[in-house]
Structures are given as structure tokens and as C-alpha cells.
# Entry
Amino acid sequence: MHTLNVALGHRSYPIHIGAGLLGRSDLLLPHIHGRQVLVVSNETVAPLYLDALIGALSGYHVATCILPDGESFKDLQHLDRIFTCLLEQRFNRDCTLIALGGGVVGDMTGFAAAAYQRGVDFIQVPTTLLAQVDSSVGGKTGVNHALGKNMIGVFKQPNVVLIDTDVLTTLPARELKAGLAEVIKYGLIRDLPFLAWLEQNIPGLLAGDASLLAEAIRQSCENKAAVVAADELEKSDLRALLNLGHTFGHAIETGMGYGAWLHGEAVATGMLMAADLSMRLGWLSADDVLRVRTLLVRAGLPVDPPQMAVEEFLQHMSVDKKVKEGRLRLVLLQALGHAVVSEAPPELLCATLSAGSALGVLK
Amino acid sequence: MHTLNVALGHRSYPIHIGAGLLGRSDLLLPHIHGRQVLVVSNETVAPLYLDALIGALSGYHVATCILPDGESFKDLQHLDRIFTCLLEQRFNRDCTLIALGGGVVGDMTGFAAAAYQRGVDFIQVPTTLLAQVDSSVGGKTGVNHALGKNMIGVFKQPNVVLIDTDVLTTLPARELKAGLAEVIKYGLIRDLPFLAWLEQNIPGLLAGDASLLAEAIRQSCENKAAVVAADELEKSDLRALLNLGHTFGHAIETGMGYGAWLHGEAVATGMLMAADLSMRLGWLSADDVLRVRTLLVRAGLPVDPPQMAVEEFLQHMSVDKKVKEGRLRLVLLQALGHAVVSEAPPELLCATLSAGSALGVLK
# Structure
């Protein structure tokens, strides 16, 4: 088992990574301070792993809230279901919420924990690769709005993140690939050696090699923890760098309807769009962009944006959280392994948005 | 104009109290950092004061969100309307929300500001006495749930509180009286000289004497600011003392249906119930309780609890935020001017809950 620390003063917390952690009460119980525990999960994950988790909580008053599975249910209406569960069980301010699931469950449970009685404890037990390497760490919580993804939420750090690598054996291949998009992201924005490691090991990762996956998760969480520790609340642009590909990706997700594209898939295509735009700015070479494209394709990820009008792209992108004084700002690559937040000349942005399957090819 | 300070380190903010402050751009603009401003108000207040406020915001991109008036609309569904307004206008993270209204508008606007894009600025312009002396100060925000009042929310401090005493001239008498309940509360929990001052000046306050009202608001806000500065997040029991009468009161509000009793009315009756229970514990004399009752009656406030079964009272009270390890804790009076948080023997609590109109009378 690896243990990392997210260094945030009195809100610091450990991330445990290893096989068979789900039922480890020795890792869970030190972070539960009352007797009441609500496990929030979804209809896909609960039948597989709920019993093991509850087994580690004997002696506690444990209730469960099982949500439907999917990004399209990540809204205020389904958030309210968690509050109803808590209130029906008469849960008090000293209760603890545990998120058992992917990014949707984690984001919603964290938001519910932040807002229930103005704040109760919560624990992340992520069960998708994407949640393990990204969304379960760092305290971003929230729900979507019909007009914009992740527009409603707060920062709320968990007490502990328990990453059981065994659960990846039941993860559908499509979800595993989607998670790899966020893994690759760390290489692109700040860790060139990790990018090279991924290029070498992508076949093993796709094949589900447990020790390779554990290593990829560890390196990803180390990168994430370092960024979050330096800029917890995204006050500078540092934390925003974690959003490489996300402004394009959110536009795809919102435009195509939540759930049509997996978040990681939209981010993969979005990262290639960011690389394409970085090339048009003269920062990346065509070879660099090809290198990004090749890795994403080898990871089984989509690299062609959907058929969406430039205007629609721009409309969805205009509500991005990085917009400042009305001006769109994007995470771009000054070089592979070195991301920055920058505005981009509109004509270059439009060229990227209209490039379609010719991303990375200068006309 | 009086100016008080809520001392919270880098989250400190001023409270300005005086006549004609609503249109004072010199007081508003220093606290608005972007160009986009959303004014949230309700159908009753907007026709009276929206124009004056907007007049002080010339040169800004100002949008409005007008909610229906009343506690029964303080829910997630109507909160979502604020988010829709913000997103339809493409408002970014550097926007500012202004709450123009009573406690419902203030609580919802503050929560929306805390959660929109994980946090934007907001300003309180309270237009009821209750909001001016209590809910606009201190950063408690949120909405109700069908199963419990104020169960969903977060702490979010405003940038400034602008209390225009002129708006009280249009406040219905019933609302003015309801506000006096929270004013009297400060005397009961921590300020015996203020209690005596109120006993002397209640006729003038009810008659709408502007200088007396301004003085009552100033003293109330000073008390509130002192408590909030010492215990912003209700980590100790200190801030909880501001909830005198509120556990009983919330049970009345939830049990009777949101809006049937005004919050201040429910708190008034709740404070007399707390005084009654304090007497049964041997802390207050019958004369003390009579003194509380007399002042509330002179302020035109209800002092008889509604016909509600003891079981129903207990059920609604059991979701109170002060419950710890399953045990109900109440704000009670060790003496007039000295509140404490304490458990109470169930038989004494039941005696209070079943006393009906005989509150304060030992059988």
C-alpha cells in the first residue's frame, strides 16, 4: 500500500492506494468521528462493492443512498435525494458521508457533505480509474446545470481517500480508457518523464496490469496533490492547469447531452484541441501534436471532435469558470510537460474549433 | 450613519446602518470587483426598491432575478432559478450577487453566491427588520428541506451589509414585530442592559420611531458581530447561543408549514418555551419568565405554541443541528442575559412542550 498526503494544513488528508483496501476498517474508522454513516453509491457499483464497505463499518449506524448511474443524474434534483436520506434517518452534524463510486457519486456526495447542516465529514472511496486519479482528490464538488457543467458546487476536502485498485477488475474497458485520459493529462501539463512512462506502458495499462495501474494512480495522485497543496481554491492559475482539455471537453459534454460522451473521452479530444491550438500559437510542433494524438489513440480514446458548430462550441465555452472580465482563457501547452493559462487569438481558436478530424494539421 | 465591523481576518466586512443608504454607490461600488452584478429580490420588495438600488450601479452589467415572496419558496428548486439567471447572462466567477430583500432572499442569494462556480462575491441589502438585525450578518446561508428548516446550506460571508433604515417605513407591522423577536433575543442571551432598554422603548419601536429603530439595529448588530467574530463556524457552542428559541421555533415552522408562522413569531414563542424550560430546571424564576412573556406580548408577538402533539414537536426537533451523538441540546437561560447550550431532562422538556398557553406556570 502507498500512502500520499495532501498537504493543506489542518485540512490535510491521506490518500491510501493499494489492493483490497475497501474492507479495511483500520483505514476507514480513524476518519469517522460520530456513529452515523451514510454510504452514497449508484445502481452499478452498489451490487458489487457495497457489502464489502459496509462490512468494515460494523458497530456504526449505516444507511445507504443509491443513485441512478450516470452524468445525466448529476443535478440538484438528485442531490436532494441525498439530503432526504440524511433527514429521514435523522442524521446529525456529526455524521459522515462516504462516496462509493465514480466521479459523479464523489462530486455529489462531497457537495451534499459540504451543504448538509452547513458541513459534515466525508470520505472518498473512488471506484473508477478517473475518480481515483482525479476527481476524488482535491475537494472540487458539485453538480451540473442544464446550461453548464459543474457550475454549481463548492470546495470541500474529504477526510481520507481510499483507492482500492482491485475494483478496477470490474471496470468496463470504456471507463478504464476514459480514466487514462486524465492520467495522460498529468504527463502533458507537468510531468514529461511520466508521459514517456505512459507511452511505454500503455499496452499493459489497457490490459489491466495491476501493478502498472497502481503505479499510474500513484504518480497521478502525486501530481494532483502537489498542485492542490499549492493552490487549493484555484486562486492563482496553477490549479487551473489541471483543466487541460476541459473547456473544450465541457463544451462537448454539455453540447452532446450529459452522458453521451464520458468525461474522460471529452477531455481526451479536448486535450488534442488544446495541443492543436498551442501549435497554431507556435508553441508546439506538429510532431508534438502527433505525439499527443498517437498516445490518445493508443489509449483507445476519441480524438475527433463531434460535429458541432463553432458558434455552439463558443457558446458553451463562454460559461467556463476561467473566463475573466468577459475574456475566455484556456489551458494551453507551451511545450509538452508545460501547461499555461492563456487567452488565444479568436481566429486561431476558430481554426481549431473547425478543424474537425484534421486536428494537428496546419492547412 | 453607523459603521460596525465584523472582525473575521481577511473575510472581515463592514455593516453600514443609516437612512437612505440604498442608493449610495460610494458604499456599494468599493465591494464590487467585476462588471457583472445580479440583484436577487422578490415580488414584494422589487417594485419598491429595485430601481433605487440599480440607480447606484450605473456603468455595470446589471441583471435581476425576482423570486416569489415567502419562506415556502426557500428551497433548492427556487435556488436553481438564481443559477439559471446567472448562466443565461453568462455571468463569470468575477460577478457579484446582491440580495435585496428579507431573510429568505438573503439566505438563498448567499447560498447561490457560495455555490455558483464554487464561489462568487455577494452583498447583503436587507429590507426587513429581521434580516437587518440577524440573518444578513454572519454568513449563514441556505434553503429549507421538506423535512427540516435550514438543513441545506453553507457559511459564506458577504462583502458588505448595507442597512437602509428608511425601508422599514414600508414594512408591514406584522413583519416589524417579527423582527423585534430577534432584537429581544440579544437582550435575553447576552445583554441585560439592552433588554431593559427594549422594555423602555418598545412602544416607540412599534410606532416606527426611526432613531429608536436605528439604535436597536445597531445594538443588535454589535451583539451579533461580536458572537460571529468569536465563533464564525459554530465550532464551539458560543454561536449556537444565537439560536435561543430556534429549536422550538423551527419545529413550529416545519410542523405548521413554512410561511404559516413568520420566523420571528415562531422564535418568540420558542424563546418563551426556552424560558419555561429554564424555569423548570430551576434557573429562572417565575418572575423572570413573566418578564420575558410580558415583553414579547407588548411587542405584539405570539406566546402560545400551536396545537401540536408532543411527539410531533420532538420529531421536528430531533433533526436540529445542535443534536450531538443523538442527544438533543437546547439553548436555555441560566439567567436573563445569560444563555447556555444544555441538554434537558426529557420529563421537563415534555412538560414545556405540553404546557400550551400555560407556559411559565408551574403545575
Chain B is about 45% helix and 15% strand. The mean pLDDT of chain B is 96. The first helix of chain B runs from residue 25 to 28.
